[in-house]
Amino acid sequence: MAKTKVLLACRECGRSVGQWMGRCPSCAAWGSIEAGPPAEATGTAPILSLLDDQQDETRLSSGFPGADRVLGGGLCRGSVVLVAGEPGIGKSTLLLQVAGLVAAAGGECLYASGEESRGQVAARARRLSIAEKAVSFIPGRDLPDVLASVRQARPDLLIVDSIQALRDPDQSSLPGGPSQVRACADALVGLAKERDVTVILAGQVTKVGEVAGPRTLEHAVDVVCSFDGDARTGLRVLAGGKNRFGAEGEVAWFEMSASGLTEVDGAARLSPSQGEAGAAVAVLTAGRRALAVEVQALVVPTDGPPRRHVSGLDPRRFNLVAAVTDRALGLRLSRAEVYGTAAGGLQVAEPGTDLAVAAAVASAASGRPPPPRTAFVGEIALTGAVRPTPNMAARLAAAGAAGMGSVVVPAGAVDPPTGVTLTNVRHLRDALFWATGAKQAPDQRF
Ligand code: TYD
Ligand code: MG
Question: Which residues have any ligand 1 atom within 6 Å of their CB?
């Protein structure tokens, strides 16, 4: 016969507990634990009018306009948002910054960290110039402690970093396991609704892109965002997935620097100087998404040493690409100072942007602008061969979205989106023939 479990709950705050105890672990009331389900399970819940609730539309701003857009207009009160990303991508940094910004706007924030100690989080807060006193810290390993602290402190925003580090003592499995993650998420969803607290959960994603723990975690929460990026570049993207309060598919771009994450305006990256000599459009990737960015070069003849100076580009890669371009097109860069930069202060350092850097250098040296509305994607070998580049579909889509009508790509690239034509090239010369003043591309034998 199945064993009937006696339900015990606190008379004062409704917290259910697994065994009888003298003092409630949530509200610290003495002698308040008694048999019976918590208040909300008595069948006497009040019936509310849907339209009456004035608080419904008051959203909490995350402090980042782009993140608010991804969330569908800010954080809904009483909602639970999952921010999922690979380890090291910057979830803790993002969420601590959000906590700091919410606190600076007058919100009460509680940061529960199960992955880092108070000292570590405080050190990070200092580095991010967040007033340490503005955000309260609690250890985030023990679910009952977190629930109790929230009931006591009643913050506007609770951040749990991460859901995998949290443990429910009523579950026998290890922290991070499916039943633990599910139980903890359920308890936090309950808490969010019960106390009208907004909860953000950081969730670790495994290499294959799944949120570690059950997929049901994604069903339990209201909003799922992925935080993605490329470890080599500082570029990060927050992308909206499931959203009960807004549209899916919004993205916000960030850049990671020594002082934390700054939001960058992805759409505005290209506008300023299109069609000018020395400027070419590259397409960067961050995770599975891509962003079109302008790179610029300046070539100045000199009798002195041929200096090279870059900002926003990888100096070694830039020198190498400039040398290969020089050799392929006969630009005589050995008698020139060469400068390179990425527009908008972004860090452009991945090999897939080589061809655009080469186009900017060739254009600066020849004084001829690249063909209009053209982006360049491809990695360059020392021989001048243009190599295949990962994430081509996302890059082509981003180029199309940025208004590019044509993209110069390595041979064998995939189908372009509508409105974009591809020029397949095997060698730098085929891609940059316009810089030499030639009317036609060299013979392409493939
Ligand atoms: P973190 O937020 O700890 O990642 P996650 O929580 O997703 O595991 O960020 C880790 C990386 O970010 C780490 O390599 C250091 C870097 N970082 C910066 O570059 N600048 C900063 O200001 C901070 C706080 C971190
Ligand atoms: Mg972290």
Answer: 85, 87-93, 124, 127-128, 256, 258-260
